[in-house]
């Protein structure tokens, strides 16, 4: 199983369990996240780039993978993604580099999956 399939299947399975708990606060947080990334004053592409950079600075590999998947779906170029990487590393400092490595690995897997 690819790292992409593994991530997507695990995320879907766990989100299903979380939603099945029927916790009002958790459901509202998930809904807020969905609505925050919808088209608005900023287009969806811009929001995903912001989400990617913020996730890298916060060093959340799951979030980085999620936003990379969305960036891939939105047909961002590698140049666009690497610019987001560069800003994240500038803002976050060298501690972000290990997350950059994993992000590059995941981005390459996304690119190869579409070959």
From TrEMBL:
SUPFAM superfamilies: AhpD-like. Keywords: Oxidoreductase, Peroxidase. InterPro entries: AhpD-like, CMD-like. Residues 25-105 form the Carboxymuconolactone decarboxylase-like domain. GO terms for molecular function: peroxiredoxin activity. This is Alkylhydroperoxidase. It comes from Roseivirga spongicola. It comes from the Bacteria. The keyword Oxidoreductase applies. Pfam families: CMD.
